[in-house]
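[Automated response] Your request has been received and processed.

Submitted sequence:
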Amino acid sequence: MFRDDVPGCGVYRHSDGKLVKQCNTHGELLHGQFYSSTPTLDAFLADAGYTPYETIADTYTVYSPIPGFTLASPFKEALEGIRYLVQVNADPKAQFFILISDSLLDYLSVLELLQPLVMHKRMVAEDAARA
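Generated structure:
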């Protein structure tokens, strides 16, 4: 079981219309296996076979699998069945990720959950531009 005592961090899986916390960091996804060869998120995602798909209003980035990439251990256990990984930029100190299966309904549901954050970030940016 993971420690749920790391503020501002979390990896969640979208399941049955809810976000269920899986672990605190992307490194912990590998179920305690040592992972130090690529300490950055970008390197981790590249090793896992994911590439940036789109970024919305500096609020979240959707990563999708590289076509034809075969998951290797230890990523296979952690990311089997995951079509999208979403990095949520709630604030500069937070690190939140959402894992989404290969389901259009799940994908759209997560995007809907993120809409209030997108609107908030846009309003903050507009207010800053006017100031």
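Summary generated for your ticket: The chain has one domain: 9-130. The chain has a mean pLDDT of 84.
If you did not submit this request, please reply to this message.
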